[in-house]
Specification:
The complex is a heterodimer of chains A (284) and B (208). With 284 residues, chain A is mainly α. Chain A is built from 11 helices and no strands. Chain B is of the alpha/beta class and 208 residues long. Classes of the chains: A mainly alpha (284), B alpha/beta (208). At the A-B interface, α1, α5 and α11 of A face β3, α2 and α3 of B.
């Protein structure tokens, strides 16, 4: 601790800026900033639930229709709703990470943050933690609604659901880090990337169909993406009541690589932004 | 560059002995800054913003320190208002409150009185002068307002096209150009008028 006396004022008691507890303190302070932001607008809160709820309704009714008319597969289980809910975990978590980061640029606050004792990895930790909190706020009510409206209980996926969740969230952070890095370097003109990057994965990670549907040459690409293993695993549980845990270990290992690559990309773009002097000119 | 937001293309910046390119975090808690080009989050209230930054700067007695700074800068009526709804003068005072939370030994200010009415600007200048004097702190001020620089600075560094062209006390600078004010010196410089022949310069006061 250090203080410096002067006058009659209240001196700040400064805690050590190093160590794990200091890191936790700063991450917690930043998460508080995001909580304040969410609390400041009821519209934001409603919006968090609105889009996943609409998605769930649309696909739920489609599945109901298909189950009544044609596909025997559709009659087996809530494959479509399951796919939608799991995809939304990936997508919403990615959006939560990216938009929260972009928010700092919209509010021209990044200069304040990056000149404070906050380390870049603490900023990333706060964004990651906040993306999970946002995910809880948006997905829990929607999953409950899916149960009451369509009788689909996400928890029937059992223990693997926890691993599915981890795989999807970790992938979303990797994508979030890459888009945050690009936006840091190229400014808000690259903002579109934050919205669209996850959609690049949509056809490749086989959300609504099995990997076998893809052409042979594309299947290794799909299997190199961690979420593919989640969606394959989900279909395996719901349709065949079997599950290969090795598949998810493989996905987690892939995630470790992608996450490391994502952080390296973010750090590289941040250092480029420092070299090019673009951190204080982050407009479009 | 001093804050580590921009890397020097050559050379190094050392503050309190730390190389700002590599060890910025060793000294980040002893610095702070304010700029009209960097905002506090607009949707958060003033109190929320100050609490967040007290957390980021590791201030253990955050509530007491915030209360003191708020009283000192007379922003108590603004505490529960969203920061984005404040006037330019109010935002400056709130930005200054954030910059003073950790009682920095080095305070960097970018145009601290830009777009302020003369009364508020004068009030801010007085606060800054008092702060530097009471704490023996270094205040590095970037400004185009030469009257402000003349009033606040012990040492003036004039830059042209990214290069230092003068580094003197205000009095020595005015004297060496045979002028009455720093603004006249500034005009001489940008208009290419030469200074008087060798005048014994005053020794600039050492910055920490």
């Amino acid at each position: 601790m250090s203080t410096s006396p002067s006058g009659n004022g209240v001196e700040p008691v400064l805690l050590s800026p190093s160590g794990i507890s200091a890191s936790f303190r700063r991450v917690w302070a930043l998460v508080h900033r995001y909580v304040y932001l969410l609390r400041s607008s009821g519209v934001r809160l409603v919006e968090l639930i609105y889009w996943p709820f609409l998605q769930m309704l649309t696909w739920g009714f489609l599945q109901k229709y298909l189950a009544e008319t044609s596909s025997p597969l559709m009659q087996a289980a809530g494959v479509l709703i399951g796919s939608v809910l799991l995809w939304d975990i990936l997508f919403r978590s990615k959006i939560g990470f990216s938009t929260t980061f972009i928010e700092e640029m919209w509010s021209r606050n990044l200069g304040n943050l990056l000149t404070s004792p906050l380390r870049p990895y603490e900023l990333v930790a706060a964004l990651s933690l906040w993306s999970i909190i946002r995910l809880g706020v948006s997905m829990v009510p929607v999953a409950i609604a899916a149960y009451f409206i369509f009788g689909f209980n996400l928890l029937t996926l059992g223990l693997p659901l926890a691993v599915f969740f981890c795989v999807l969230v970790l992938t979303s952070w990797s994508l979030g880090l890459i888009s945050a890095g690009v936006i840091l370097r190229y400014g808000l003109g690259a903002e579109e990337l934050a919205w669209s990057l996850a959609f690049l994965l949509l056809p490749l990670c086989c959300v609504y169909y099995p990997v076998s549907v893809l052409p042979d040459w594309l299947q290794p690409v799909a299997l190199a993406l961690p979420p593919t293993h989640v969606f394959e695993g989900m279909r395996s549980i719901l349709l065949h009541h079997t599950f290969d845990p090795m598949d998810l270990w493989w996905a987690l290992a892939l995630n470790a690589i992608y996450l490391a690559a994502g952080y390296a990309t973010f750090s590289w773009f941040l250092s480029r932004a420092r070299i090019n002097g673009t951190l204080l000119q982050l407009g479009e | 560059m001093l804050l580590g937001l921009v890397m020097p293309s050559e050379g190094e910046v050392r503050i309190f002995g730390a190389d700002m390119s590599r060890n910025r975090y060793d000294v980040a808690q002893r610095l702070n800054f304010q700029s009209p080009y960097v905002d506090l989050p607009a949707r958060l209230t003033v109190k929320q913003n100050l609490k967040v930054y007290a957390g980021l700067y590791g201030i253990a007695n955050a509530a007491e320190r915030i209360a003191y700074v708020v009283e000192h800068l007379q922003i108590a009526p603004l505490l529960d208002r969203p920061t984005g709804k404040l006037s330019a003068g109010q935002k400056t005072r709130v930005g200054l409150a954030k910059a003073l939370l950790n009682a920095p030994e080095l305070l960097l200010l970018d145009e601290p009185t830009a777009s302020l009415d003369p009364d508020t600007a004068d009030w801010i200048r007085r606060k800054l002068k008092d702060y530097a004097a009471e704490r023996n702190a270094t205040v590095l001020l970037a400004s185009h307002n030469m009257a402000e620089v003349e009033r606040l600075a012990d040492r003036v560094i004039l830059l042209q096209a990214g290069r230092i062209i003068e580094d003197e006390t205000p009095r020595a600078l005015i004297k060496s150009y045979g002028r009455d004010t720093l603004e006249d010196v500034f005009l001489d410089l940008v208009r290419g008028r030469a200074k008087l022949a060798a005048v014994e310069p005053e020794q600039p006061r050492k910055a920490s």
